Amino acid sequence: MLFNELPHGSIPKLERPGSIREQVYGALLELISSRSLHPGQHLVESELAGHLGVSRQPVREALQRLNTEGWVDLRPAQGAFVHEPTGDETDQLFVVRVLLETEAARLAAVGPSTDGLERLDELCEWGEAAVAADDVDAVVIANATFHACVMELAGNAVLAELAAHVEQRVRRYYTPIVSQAWVEHRELIAAIAAHDDARAQQVMRAHTVDARTRFPPRPSR
Fold first, then answer.
1. Structure pTM?
2. Counting Cβ atoms within 10 Å, is residue 187 exposed (0-12), middle (13-18) or buried (19+)?
């Protein structure tokens, strides 16, 4: 069955009111991007609808939308499956991530705020503690929040929006649990605090390029 191996209570019934279509779409997107539903997994409309507490129609619409966005593959006479990215797709995604994150680091170093630097330091402490505790979920959240904070310091809303979209897709590929990732975060904070935009770019570029080859892939739950 589709959800037998998922943690109990990880798929709550959707609450009303609100747009059921959007809630179903958001729930399925989160399950796919977090790898609760793993690449290649068959998605059965009736099972999804039952676990989410909705009819099959919003599930069908959500799967069609996710297919358009590249998260789901709809195969004639077979049904829906979680998309399995090719090596080329993964490489292209990480190339884009490097460009966005590197530019964000440069902009952040040009005009950081004291509050922003303090927030980055707090997030780094959180991530380091999660690594020490081997808390994979907490590490993933801390890492994503750290990079989102750098984007916020960059002060470019369009850049932040694009990066958030890319980061969501990147979540499928790796877990930034190695301690070296957080050493690099510390180096980035130092570069931003020193207003050294060239160094900030250098650190972030190396950090994001290495993510493609050094960090371990995210396990399926």
1. 0.75
2. middle
